[in-house]
Design goal:
- It contains eleven helices and 13 strands.
- It is of the alpha/beta class and 325 residues long.
- The chain is globular, with a radius of gyration of 19 Å.
- The relative contact order is 0.14.
């Protein structure tokens, strides 16, 4: 198997987690680029993909993922972090889902022979822990303390096993993904539209974020650029503080910022999950920038204007624009 440059014939890319928000956008981006897609899903009949997408039944607990014929495998699997309180059982569930899925995919690559294959496996910018005002990139050391840092680190350690097969490994350290279909943006919209949105926490902590379409394009960039290996940050080059995020969100919706939410209140309402918004992540995607990736939505203003506007730009159009440059 070989990872082919864009000028050559198309690849076959297997996506685990193709039914999620990022997965759907990635499927569209790959098809717009002429690539063949294999979607690995738990219940094939429950999902609606374009007819050209090959659907294979798979779940995280399967010992070996069915990735036969794939030139690349993208792992986007993971139960939503914020959906339920983090008691001991929930933390174990969040961890095990990610580890089992990653292990199954690695064994699938081992079965077909990893030499020439690319494995892009999701992880998180929380790998480096709470970095305060310090700006960090892919070279950041592992963070200490906190469930999110620990989760990202064991997740990456499991993915590292694919190197034994000879495959190229890209660790996609994902930041806060902004998309219309779900996640943080969808959760905040009703609050801000009603005029009750405000700053989360003290306001000075940093948020690393990225537009959903730039995530899909970044993954394609990592597939195309064979020199990219190891940690690969998926974040805009322009992180913002919590205060700036709230101000821009309210401004884009033409609503006031009325009720800031204190650290104590966030802890009372969300418990340990509040760390998702209280920890500071001032992350810069140095590898993407140094390998020539051009963000379509580099600033929060541009991203929110697109996502909250009446006519967001489709990923296929963005791919066409990139080809014409």
């Amino acid at each position: 198997m070989t990872t082919r440059p864009r000028a050559d014939k198309s690849r076959t890319v297997a996506i685990a987690g193709a039914n999620g928000m990022v997965g759907h956008h990635l499927v569209e981006a790959l098809q717009a680029s002429g690539d063949r897609v294999i979607a690995l899903v738990r219940q094939p009949s429950a999902h609606h993909f374009p007819s050209a997408v090959e659907i294979r039944r798979w779940q995280a607990s399967d010992p070996v993922a069915p990735v036969d014929g794939a030139d690349a495998v993208v792992n986007l699997v993971g139960d939503p972090i914020f959906a339920r309180p983090w008691n001991r059982a929930r933390k174990q569930e969040l961890t095990q889902t990610r580890l089992l899925a990653t292990r199954s995919l690695v064994e699938g690559i081992r079965k077909i022979g990893g030499e020439g294959c690319t494995f892009i496996s999701s992880t998180a910018v929380e790998y480096a822990g709470d970095t305060g005002d310090r700006q960090v990139d892919e070279k950041a050391a592992p963070g200490t303390g906190g469930f999110l840092a620990e989760l990202a680190q064991v997740w990456e350690a499991e993915a590292q096993r694919v190197r034994e097969t000879g495959a190229r490994l890209v660790l996609l350290r994902q930041s806060l993904v902004l998309g219309r279909e779900g996640g943080t943006l969808a959760a905040l919209l009703p609050v801000y539209r009603s005029g009750f949105g405000g700053t989360l926490g003290p306001g000075g902590q940093w948020f690393s974020w990225i537009h959903i379409n730039d995530v899909a394009r970044l993954i394609l960039h990592a597939l195309d650029q064979e020199t990219i290996t190891g940690p690969f940050i998926s974040a805009s080059p322009n992180p913002v503080t919590s205060r700036e995020f709230a101000k821009m969100f309210a401004h884009t919706l033409h609503r006031p910022r009325l009720f800031p939410m204190s650290r104590g209140m966030m802890k009372l309402v969300w418990g340990e999950r509040a760390d998702l918004f209280l920890d500071s992540h001032r992350t810069v995607p140095q590898v993407a920038l140094s390998t020539g990736f051009q963000f379509r939505f580099p600033t929060l203003s541009e991203a929110l204007s697109d996502l909250l506007g009446p006519h967001p730009i489709p990923i296929a159009q963005l791919m066409q624009e990139a080809r014409e440059r």
